[in-house]
Amino acid sequence: MCFDDKKRMGKFMEIHRVEKDKKRYLPLLLLGDEQESIIDRYLARGEMYVIEDSSPIAVCVVADEGDGVLEIKNLAVAPAFQRKGLGKAMISFVVEKYRGRYRVLQVGTGDSPSTIPFYEACGFTRSHVVPDFFTTHYDHPIYDGGVLLRNMVYLQIIL
Known about the structure:
two-stranded antiparallel ribbon, seven-stranded mixed beta sheet, alpha+beta
């Protein structure tokens, strides 16, 4: 696990599941996936979890991809709360909640200098790459840290 999330979350409220009106979290979801039509493809079928202070500050959407695979479809933390352990807390929560129910937790992300090291620090290892995913599935170029994203890099943790 990344760490003891209850210690690191400090004053933040607990992680809770959102079952209705998931689109009210769209501004936060768009931080993790900047095209609404792509979010719409997984939001209804995914399970959503949120950390809120006076407003939503972190969100995670996971979806069953079949064959024992659970995928993190969206993980986002509000900019003012980044680098405080909330993203890692979400991952720890998901790993503990779904361990024994799925065999693999995977995440697909751009080959970015900010996201790949984050997931690797949480114990994910590289699995496979889908070439030209971002240039094929998004209606505009996606940049992260000044890097044009082309390929989707999948990482996984064995549950």
